[in-house]
């Protein structure tokens, strides 16, 4: 089998992602990097969205060196090699040290797993998910080795964190010089070193420190300076570094792989991860600083720096400030883009000249600025910049290069909120193009009477802005909110900001005043929401409690009105490609545009945008016109509140001591087991209103079920309960209908839908409901619903009073309950479809952790596609009113479904719906013939293709049942109608 035979068998060519060396630059920098870094070059690379997925080689030379380089490059999961007609498939993410080879996946019998459709639908990656585990990749192994060595230096040899960090930084830098084949003149002879040469120097403590001084004198700059504790570095401590470099087992038992690491292609992300390890878990918990995954950095710089260069074709300077720079990963990536832009615009400048070296230093000195109060972080950031400057020079030129002094000129060890520090004066004079970063997410200290610098800053600004109608505010001492606002002090008219912050900033009930100020004083251009994929985004973080993230793109308004500013809101949803490769897969329906004033008027819309769209907003807005449950409770004077709390305060139990306790586990949907236990406590922290424990009450558990329903049950016996239960009490039978109406409402499908789209925590961090949100649910008097709930309660009672085995609620009873609610609120067919879609697909994926791949595909002539089609048929039939004929052709294949909506004269009228079987390749060629040549993975995973021709319009989507639900039909229909109206106006 030849390599061309393989391309044909897999269905790969240049139209769908196959890239050859001669056109790599046109494909993107990542693909170009693959061709440049590997020797020999691959014959071709298959890529999706500029991400390399498969390397193809035909009889390559030096397989051992090639395998090591591919693994170190850490970019490509699959390598397919043809040698003498034999085919072998390798795992590019796993290197077997003893075999000097990549891990073998299989031979030509496995090729069918790598066909185009299996690659782009994710089927391939689902099958090989375990083999491609992160724990085999070079960055994981490298960080594990660094982590172990650092731990030994600190714990066994009493080095300070700073000294251990500086020592390891010097080791990494020297290995970088060795792997780049930079000649080192230490000892009088200028030559290329080996790792063995370096180890021989480290074996003598005096020689080692003389060598470190040599590096400092030769390269200048601020390269991991030692502190006063460097005299603690013993010969034994240096021997740990020798073991590390030699690739032997460390004292921890961990095998070092430094002998196979290649630091000449060290990834930038490694530096950021090193920073995370350097500060350690304890300091991370204290400061709230988190490492930033490279793919988020690349996304932000692509939307800022790259966009700036696209709009300014002759410019190569772009000034960037990171106010919480950490390892400097944003500034390093920005600097890379600036240097590459400079290289593009100065093709005649010799890359080996002194002038070029000076230009590189100027690009760094004039464009990147960072602040962080952690000195170790600043050291890593400067080191990262230095490596970046070296990456663009030849080894011989590096020998004469002197690093720029960046400490206290570009990088400042300081608190961003300290208004008296020198950086304020220096940076305020600079016109920044962008302020970007990932500020700490930690809440401030709660020490009584002591204000953190960021709190002092907010107080200062509040006094300064005393005449403003919308007052500055942050909630819960959230330092990230203060960062969002503080950047305005360094903003000019052209300055745009992009910060990664916790998503809770947009939803937390207590952050309302912050959001009001933010919306009033800043233009928000983009919101990139990552809450639904929070576990995947920070899966390498030290912190086991993974917080949700959002990227905010915005700029200071300088007193202009922000009402009409348009915000593009994108929410990223889980996919196989994101989990494995951090490729963003964004459905068209997950991109919304909203006026800023709408968010000012309806704060809850922030949450609706996360999982819903404008149809959901319209529906929820209509529901908000009804009386709320909370308003009904006030109107009728119903006593309500949570149960007692235990704690340090000692309040007498009093008359409550005669009651028994009902535990939350015995409160079930529509029923509460009367399984009371004695209560022996004599004192309570908070007793609450004693009336809550007596009489007829509806009990509601604090948590929600895994279907996002409240758990509520009516009881008429006296008992105690804790604060995880809320009670609503009535004084007489007149209130029974209200209690049962509330009970049924809170346990309905409509409530689940409402909670998903309105509750601040659900699908963001924890699946919980707060009473202030729960009781905003609409209330309407509904005797029918009350009777349905009463019948459910009666049907659940066991035959034996003492039995703990109760009957279950039947599906038919739940249907009656839901239908009663729908009639009460006049829920339309379109609104019912929204509720059904949320309960059937959205809630299971985010709450029950059901993978989207578990949802079935659509079979030929399946009724669900008929339902989708009929929504279009009904709409256009009413539009044409018999003047035209409207019909739908459904093309069905295993991977793609297409619908052609045809408009014709009445005399050529045909069947309303026609099913046609097609194979995948035919559908693909049809899409290309319709003008969609640039097919990417997005087309077949979560994105649709749609368009207009003379006599028809069409839509293609992946063959996934959830994508052809009636709720999406209403959305798709509106998109087509808007396009038709727009075309008519033009």
From TrEMBL:
Record's catalysed reaction(s): a 2'-deoxyadenosine in DNA + S-adenosyl-L-methionine = an N(6)-methyl-2'-deoxyadenosine in DNA + S-adenosyl-L-homocysteine + H(+)
This enzyme's EC code(s): 2.1.1.72
Domain Type II methyltransferase M.TaqI-like: 366-530
Xref: Pfam families: Eco57I
Entries under InterPro entries matching the protein: MethylTrfase_TaqI-like_dom, N4_N6_ade-DNA_methylase, SAM-dependent_MTases_sf
Enzymatic class: transferase
Entry keyword annotation includes Plastid: no
Keywords carried by this UniProt record: DNA-binding, Methyltransferase, Restriction system, S-adenosyl-L-methionine, Transferase
Keyword Ribonucleoprotein appears in the UniProt entry: no
GO biological process, one term: methylation
Any one Gene Ontology molecular-function term assigned to this protein's record: DNA binding
Name of this protein: site-specific DNA-methyltransferase (adenine-specific)
């Amino acid at each position: 089998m030849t390599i061309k035979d393989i391309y044909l068998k897999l269905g790969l060519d240049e139209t769908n992602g196959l890239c050859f060396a001669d056109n790599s630059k046109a494909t993107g920098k990542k693909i170009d990097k693959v061709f440049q870094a590997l020797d020999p070059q691959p014959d071709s690379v298959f890529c999706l969205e500029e991400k390399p997925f498969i390397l193809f080689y035909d009889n390559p030379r030096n397989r051992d060196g090639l395998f090591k380089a591919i693994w170190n490059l850490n970019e490509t999961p699959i390598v397919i090699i043809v040698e003498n007609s034999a085919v072998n498939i390798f795992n590019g993410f796993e290197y077997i040290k003893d075999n000097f080879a990549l891990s073998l996946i299989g031979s030509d019998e496995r090729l069918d797993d790598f066909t185009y459709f299996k690659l782009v639908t994710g089927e391939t990656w689902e099958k090989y998910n375990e083999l491609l585990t992160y724990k085999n990749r070079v960055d994981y192994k490298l960080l594990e080795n660094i982590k172990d060595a650092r731990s030994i230096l600190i714990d066994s040899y009493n080095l300070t964190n700073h000294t251990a960090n500086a020592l390891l930084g010097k080791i990494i830098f020297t290995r970088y010089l060795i792997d780049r084949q930079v000649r080192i003149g230490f000892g009088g002879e200028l030559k290329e070193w080996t790792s063995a040469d370096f180890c021989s120097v480290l074996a003598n403590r005096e020689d080692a420190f003389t060598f470190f001084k040599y590096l400092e004198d030769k390269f200048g700059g601020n390269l991991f300076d030692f502190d006063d504790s460097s005299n603690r570095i013993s010969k034994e401590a240096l021997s740990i570094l020798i073991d590390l470099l030699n690739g032997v087992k460390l004292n921890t038992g961990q095998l070092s792989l430094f002998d196979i690491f290649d630091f000449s292609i060290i990834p930038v992300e490694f530096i950021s991860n090193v920073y995370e390890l350097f500060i350690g878990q304890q300091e991370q918990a204290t400061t709230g600083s988190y490492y930033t995954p490279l793919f988020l950095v690349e996304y932000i710089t692509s939307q800022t720096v790259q966009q700036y260069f696209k709009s300014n074709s002759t410019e190569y300077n772009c000034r960037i400030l990171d106010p919480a720079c950490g390892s400097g990963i944003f500034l390093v990536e920005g600097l890379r883009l600036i240097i590459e832009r400079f290289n593009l615009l100065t093709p005649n400048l010799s890359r080996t000249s002194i002038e070029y070296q000076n230009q590189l230093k100027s690009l760094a000195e004039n464009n990147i600025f960072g602040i962080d109060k952690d000195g170790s972080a600043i050291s890593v950031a400067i080191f990262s910049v230095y490596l970046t400057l070296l990456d663009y020079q030849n080894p011989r030129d590096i020998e004469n290069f002197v690093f720029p002094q960046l400490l206290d000129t570009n990088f400042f060890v300081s608190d961003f909120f300290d208004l008296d520090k020198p950086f304020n004066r220096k940076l305020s004079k600079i016109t920044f193009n962008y302020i970007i970063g990932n500020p700490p997410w930690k809440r401030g200290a709660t020490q009584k009477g002591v204000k953190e610098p960021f709190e002092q800053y907010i107080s200062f600004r509040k006094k300064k802005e005393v005449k403003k109608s919308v007052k500055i505010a942050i909630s819960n001492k959230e330092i990230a909110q203060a960062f969002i606002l503080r950047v305005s002090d360094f903003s000019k008219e052209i300055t745009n900001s992009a910060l990664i912050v916790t998503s809770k900033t947009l939803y937390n009930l207590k952050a309302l005043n912050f959001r009001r100020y933010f919306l009033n004083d800043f233009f928000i251009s983009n919101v990139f929401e990552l809450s639904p994929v929070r576990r995947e985004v920070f899966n390498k973080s030290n912190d086991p409690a993974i917080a949700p993230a959002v990227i905010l793109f915005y700029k200071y308004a300088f007193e202009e009105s922000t009402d009409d500013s348009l915000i593009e809101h994108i929410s990223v949803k889980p996919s196989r490609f994101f989990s494995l490769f951090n490729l963003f897969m964004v459905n068209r329906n997950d991109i919304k545009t909203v006026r800023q004033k709408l968010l000012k008027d309806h704060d809850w819309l922030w949450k609706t945008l996360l999982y819903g769209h404008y149809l959901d907003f319209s529906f929820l807005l209509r529901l908000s016109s009804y009386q709320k449950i909370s308003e009904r409770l006030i109107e009728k004077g119903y006593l309500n509140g949570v149960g007692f709390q235990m704690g340090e305060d000692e309040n007498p139990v009093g008359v409550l001591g005669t009651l028994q306790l009902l535990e939350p586990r015995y409160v079930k949907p529509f029923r509460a087991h009367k399984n009371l236990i004695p209560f022996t406590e004599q004192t309570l922290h908070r007793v609450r209103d004693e009336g809550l424990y007596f009489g007829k009450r509806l009990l509601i558990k604090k948590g929600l079920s895994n279907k996002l329903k409240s758990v509520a049950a009516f009881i008429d016996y006296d008992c105690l309960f804790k604060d995880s239960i809320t009670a609503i009490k009535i004084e007489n039978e007149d209130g029974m209908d209200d209690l049962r109406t509330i009970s049924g409402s809170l346990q309905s499908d409509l409530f689940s839908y409402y909670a998903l789209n309105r509750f601040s925590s659900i699908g963001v961090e924890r699946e919980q409901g707060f009473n202030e949100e729960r009781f905003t649910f609409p209330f309407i008097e509904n005797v029918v619903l009350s009777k349905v709930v009463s019948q459910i309660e009666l049907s659940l009672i066991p035959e034996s009073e003492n039995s703990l085995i109760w009957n279950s609620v039947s599906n038919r009873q739940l249907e009656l309950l839901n239908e009663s609610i729908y009639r009460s609120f006049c829920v339309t067919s379109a609104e019912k479809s929204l509720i059904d879609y949320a309960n059937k697909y959205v809630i299971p994926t985010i709450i029950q952790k059901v993978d989207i791949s578990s949802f079935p595909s659509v079979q030929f002539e399946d009724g669900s596609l008929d339902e989708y089609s009929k929504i279009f048929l009904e709409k256009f039939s009413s539009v044409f009113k018999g003047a035209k004929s409207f019909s739908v052709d459904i093309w069905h294949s295993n991977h793609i479904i297409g619908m052609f909506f045809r408009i014709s004269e009445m005399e050529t009228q045909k069947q309303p719906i026609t099913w046609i079987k097609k194979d995948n390749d035919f559908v693909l060629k049809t899409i290309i013939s319709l003008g969609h040549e640039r097919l990417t993975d997005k087309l077949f995973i979560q994105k649709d293709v749609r368009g207009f021709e003379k006599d028809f319009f069409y839509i293609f989507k992946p063959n996934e049942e959830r994508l052809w639900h009636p709720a999406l039909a209403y959305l798709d229909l509106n998109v087509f109608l808007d396009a038709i109206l727009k075309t008519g106006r033009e």
